[in-house]
Amino acid sequence: MKAAVVTELGAPLEVRDVPVPQPGTGQVLVRLESSGICHTDIHAANGDWPVKPTPPFIPGHEGVGTVEAVGDGVDPALLGTRVAIPWLGHACGECSYCVSGWETLCEQQRNTGYSVDGCYAEHTLADARYTVPVPDAVPSTDAAPLTCAGVTTYKAVKVAGVRSAERVAVFGIGGLGHLALQYARVAGGFTVAVDVEDDKLALARELGADHTVNARTADPVAAIQALGGADVAIATAASPKSFEQAFASLRRGGRLVCVGLPADGVLPIPVFDLVLKGISVVGSIVGTRQDLTEVFALHAAGRTKVIAQARKLDEINESFAEVLSGTVPARLVIEF
Ligand code: NAD
Ligand code: ZN
Ligand code: ZN
Questions:
Q1: What is the pTM of this model?
Q2: What ligand has the least distance to the C-alpha of 260?
Q3: Tens digits of per-residue pLDDT, 181-196?
């Protein structure tokens, strides 16, 4: 099968032939139809973060495809069904996090396309229990971005506890941000979109953003404070500066949800402001299988729109460059 492989951190990916893997106990073999390109895959290939993946590995954790074979202990009824393969590829199912609805915090977790091979390939293996069924009404090309960008920002809006008529500022209108905006609206919030590219802000307006700010040409903190400040800020851009701006754009009692993962990201927070303004700062990592099921249900009901363009596996390095150049509206999806 064809796969895009990281052979060395920081080097271009190599598209090459590798053997089709065989499902072990509890696993399914999935023939991929669509595989989204998350900015995380670029961080992974570059080794941007403190915990680094070990080459050679196959990135990709927005995989959607059909179950083609099942390993021991897996219900054969899964054969032929369409499933999503998210970042949370496996969790222990028994620890205090797993049993309390926080499987995303499990210390035994395995991460698709990072600690185990992922979805930039014609086939991949997945732990059957951590795949999520894709409803018929959701095409694979939409389901792929929902599998990480969708579930992550849906969870961020949940964690923020967005209430109707609150003002929600979304920093970064890329793959994650364009969906964050929509979930904030589903929750009843008014929205402010912040990006450094005018095209992304035009997209945000099409998706219903109430206000937009170009952080390259204007000060988003001043612009959002002029509106009364944000009740919630969701930081998705891989830029440390935008985290500081997101924090400073909050009104008293505001909540900052940190989602983006910039390389060497440090967020200096003025303790005085944090305390006097009663601000909360929380990190949010992807979402659970239940969250993804809800994301698919919302999409099947027509409540969200995925903005994506198709690419081929052979174009993976050019696609990474496109994402980094800020010209992508809003997600690229490898179609097989
Ligand atoms: P993306 O490249 O599609 O989107 C990033 C957006 O930020 C782009 O639109 C870009 O123009 C914009 N941007 C860049 N600099 C900016 C600035 N200074 N101010 C405002 N906007 C700016 O990336 P993505 O796939 O949406 O991922 C974003 C980040 O989220 C990455 O760091 C990724 O690793 C991380 N991520 C986190 C989780 C999680 O669970 N916490 C899940 C998925 C991705
Ligand atoms: Zn992702
Ligand atoms: Zn666990």
A1: 0.98
A2: 1
A3: 999 999 999 999 999 9
